């Protein structure tokens, strides 16, 4: 009951930090105008003002879009004390939107490109993206921080806290709402807050908030959520520019739904929004990411026909598409043809190809391309060029070649910074060439390029990889002598080395004394030690480390939780596993279905069905719906204990929920029913299971199991049902049955099985039939023995003279 109470209190998952790149990768960033300052966040700017004047005139328009999406309270604005913030159900609603239109299958083809025909050829041919800056001060504003604090308390929500948030909503500015949305680590939380705020009385989002929400969602796979926001913009009479559709297209692309991503173009046409260069570049980018380069080229032709002139971003996308398909020559040809197309290539064009050449260590071609940068495109080989080469080569493990370019850069008067040196040092250390890495660090001192913590950490990690832990510790001490304080990453590298060399207890002691060493462990530090203790079988200590981790505010992910649960269950410590699962729920850790299933399976292995069934009920309370693996484990355990009626009810419940039985499920059910001789009940259950998922060998398994348990009479009733299919897989089952009859002293029944096989065009094993024939002759049934051999002659499997020999 304690576990159930915990589940009721904690029905939401913690944040999961999601770091995703913007939908345009660095290879399409062509000029300095698109550079973003680290202290500035950009959102799309609208022609609308920033105040919310006149927003009440929309009333409750579009409120139906929020059905079942309540965040803090009910749809009428009043808090429902019996309602909790359930993010799992939110995912289900967003990703299975029943209002999504059903497009035809063919709309993902070139027919989608016809939307370009609607463009006005006399329109201005530019991207026309207007931006508004959200300054860093907005993120630090007290009202933004307070709103974020209240959102973080969503698991313990009450009417008072919701009232405070409503009060803040009356005075918060649109840019501050944008800052709140961007601050959320989990984009689903941001979307839920967006919905909640728009439902509040006398409040409507400013148009720029919609664009920020779409931009946030474009970095995720929550494509249906983005589509809902876009549809809501139409209901609110908010102007939808091409970039709004662009965000939706990218979100579909991230979710792997290429067809729907391209259907956004048709959606634009229906909405009366004319395409521009931005949406065309996005479409080409989406096609390239999906490895549909030929379609991207056809799209380029179509957009040129309607008067949209591609820019350098367009061609850079295509260059990357060629490189992804290892068509480097075509990529270089495109760079050479760009000036003829009225668009000069930039450094990103060359860097994209150079990166792929570096990956394959094609240094000669890299140098040729560098010369073309100067001769063909008038691009100077500057320090950025050499830094790019050094990093690309180091990343792919070509440290010697990277070092050669570093020397060349220094000879030409460029000063390679510590970042370039650190990249090569890290590459040397990964290859186990620690002495060369140390020599390079010494050279850095000689040239006045003082190594930083990244450089030293790479060397520490290199020593740990080679098992030279003492030298790794000395390197940490030398860092202090050179005025470089080790950071958390440095110590975590040493922790990892200790744990992989069987010294997890020492690693744990390091964490305990971290305050004395003036460093703070992070989630990775704790995870490294936890896994090390687990591998050494010190499970209690591993659990203690995880508890310390949670108490420090770091939450283990479901994979880490499951690895520890598996180890506990494998050691037979299911009580500790269940207690640990309970503590994870109590602390708000992200516990998933697999974690519950692991503990349930462990309890079933120990025949502790009472706790297993109780935990199965707890899964429903926590909205973690059991999957087919969970059900199979419990069904098999119930059958093992002879509780076949309960197993049947649970199987029917599983089927009712739409879960598809797996081969393991079939084997477990068939084995337990056959062992008890419940053939009729089994056949009824099998019919319902087969209606969900066909299994060609289901009845074969039944016959084999019945034979092994000695229920031969029941087998005879099933034989015709199996043989009626005439499958080759059924022949092996019949042979098992014949051997069973023969071993039990019933050669005549084995003979009848062989005859049935012949009648269904299945040929039994000749050697087995010879044994049957001999036993029939021994029992005075020579006529049946002759007939059996004659059937082989009729099917051209033995010659007549061989039959006479067998009879003699």
TrEMBL record:
PPR repeat residues: 241-275, 276-310, 311-345, 382-416, 417-451, 452-486, 487-521, 522-556, 557-591, 592-626, 627-661, 662-692, 695-729
Tagged with keyword Repeat: yes
Gene3D superfamilies (alphabetical): Tetratricopeptide repeat domain
Taxonomy, superkingdom: Eukaryota
A Pfam family: PPR_2
GO molecular function: mRNA binding
Keywords per UniProt: Repeat
Protein's UniProt keywords contain Repeat: yes
InterPro entries, per the entry: PPR_rpt, TPR-like_helical_dom_sf
Family designation: Belongs to the PPR family. P subfamily.
PANTHER family in UniProt: ATPASE EXPRESSION PROTEIN 3, OS08G0290000 PROTEIN
Protein name according to UniProt: Pentatricopeptide repeat-containing protein
Species assigned in the record: Dipteronia sinensis
Organism lineage string: Eukaryota, Viridiplantae, Streptophyta, Embryophyta, Tracheophyta
């Amino acid at each position: 009951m304690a576990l159930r109470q915990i589940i009721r209190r904690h029905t939401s998952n913690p944040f999961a930090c999601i770091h995703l790149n913007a939908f345009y990768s660095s290879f399409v960033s062509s000029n300095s105008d698109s550079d973003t300052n680290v202290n500035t966040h950009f959102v799309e700017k609208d022609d609308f003002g920033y105040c919310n004047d006149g927003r009440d005139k929309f009333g409750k328009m579009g409120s139906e879009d929020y059905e079942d999406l309540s965040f803090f309270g009910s749809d009428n604005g009043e808090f429902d004390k019996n309602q909790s913030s359930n993010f799992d159900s939110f995912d289900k609603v967003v990703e299975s939107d029943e209002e999504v239109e059903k497009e035809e299958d063919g709309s993902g083809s070139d027919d989608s490109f016809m939307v370009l025909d609607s463009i006005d050829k006399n329109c201005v041919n530019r991207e026309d993206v207007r931006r508004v800056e959200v300054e860093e001060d907005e993120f630090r504003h007290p009202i933004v921080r307070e709103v974020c604090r209240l959102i973080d308390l969503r698991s313990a929500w009450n009417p008072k806290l919701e009232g405070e948030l409503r009060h803040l909503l009356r005075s918060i500015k649109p840019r501050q709402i944008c800052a709140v949305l961007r601050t959320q680590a989990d984009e689903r939380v941001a979307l839920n807050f967006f919905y909640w705020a728009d439902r509040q009385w006398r409040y409507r989002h400013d148009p720029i908030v919609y664009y920020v929400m779409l931009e946030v969602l474009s970095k995720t796979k929550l494509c249906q959520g983005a589509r809902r926001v876009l549809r809501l913009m139409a209901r609110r009479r908010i102007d939808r520019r091409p970039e709004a559709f662009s965000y939706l297209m990218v979100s579909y692309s991230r979710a792997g739904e290429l067809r729907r991503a391209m259907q956004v173009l048709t959606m634009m046409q229906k909405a009366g929004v004319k395409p521009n260069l931005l949406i065309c570049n996005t479409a080409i980018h989406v096609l390239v990411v999906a490895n549909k380069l030929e379609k991207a080229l056809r799209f380029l032709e179509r957009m040129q026909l309607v008067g949209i002139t591609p820019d350098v971003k367009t061609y850079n996308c295509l260059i990357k598409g060629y490189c992804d398909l290892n068509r480097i020559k075509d990529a270089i040809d495109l760079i050479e043809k760009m000036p003829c197309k009225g668009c000069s290539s930039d450094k990103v064009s060359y860097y994209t190809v150079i990166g792929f050449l570096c990956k394959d260590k094609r240094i000669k071609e890299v140098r040729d391309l560098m010369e073309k940068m100067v001769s063909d495109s008038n691009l100077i080989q500057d320090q950025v060029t050499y830094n790019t080469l050094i990093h690309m080569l180091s990343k792919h493990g070509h440290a010697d070649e990277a070092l050669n370019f570093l020397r060349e850069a220094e000879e030409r008067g460029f000063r390679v910074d510590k970042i370039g040196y650190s990249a090569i040092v890290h590459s040397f250390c990964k290859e186990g060439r620690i002495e060369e890495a140390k020599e390079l660090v010494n050279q850095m001192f000689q040239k006045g390029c003082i190594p930083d913590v990244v450089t030293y950490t790479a060397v520490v990690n290199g020593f740990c990889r080679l098992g030279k832990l003492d030298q790794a510790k000395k390197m940490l001490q030398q860092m202090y002598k050179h005025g470089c304080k080790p950071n958390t990453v440095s110590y975590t590298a040493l922790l990892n080395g200790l744990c992989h060399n069987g010294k997890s207890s020492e690693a744990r002691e390091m964490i305990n004394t971290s305050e004395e060493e003036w460093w703070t462990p992070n989630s990775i530090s704790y995870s490294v030690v936890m896994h090390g203790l687990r591998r050494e079988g010190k499970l209690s200590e591993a659990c203690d480390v995880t508890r310390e981790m949670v108490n420090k505010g770091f939450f283990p992910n479901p994979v880490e939780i499951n690895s520890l649960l598996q180890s506990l269950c494998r050691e037979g410590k299911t009580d500790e596993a269940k207690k640990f699962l309970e503590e994870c729920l109590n602390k708000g850790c992200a516990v998933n279905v697999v974690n519950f299933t692991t503990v349930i399976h462990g309890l079933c292995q120990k025949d502790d069905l009472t706790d297993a069934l109780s935990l199965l009920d707890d899964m429903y309370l926590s909205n973690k719906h059991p999957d087919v693996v969970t059900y199979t484990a419990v069904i098999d355990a119930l059958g093992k204990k002879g509780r076949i009626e309960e197993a049947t009810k649970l199987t029917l419940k599983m089927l009712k929920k739409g879960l598809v039985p797996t081969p393991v499920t079939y084997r477990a059910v068939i084995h337990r029913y056959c062992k008890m001789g419940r053939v009729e009940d089994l056949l009824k259950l099998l019919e319902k299971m087969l209606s969900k998922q066909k299994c060609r060998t289901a009845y074969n398994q039944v016959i084999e199991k019945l034979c092994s348990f000695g229920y031969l009479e029941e087998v005879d009733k099933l034989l015709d049902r199996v043989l009626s299919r005439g499958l080759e897989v059924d022949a092996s089952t019949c042979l098992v049955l014949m051997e069973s009859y023969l071993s039990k002293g019933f050669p005549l029944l084995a003979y009848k099985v062989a005859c049935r096989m012949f009648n269904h065009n299945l040929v039994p094993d000749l050697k087995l039939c010879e044994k049957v024939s001999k036993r029939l002759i021994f029992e005075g049934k020579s006529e049946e023995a002759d007939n059996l051999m004659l059937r082989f002659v009729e099917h051209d499997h033995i010659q007549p003279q061989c039959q006479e020999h067998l009879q003699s």
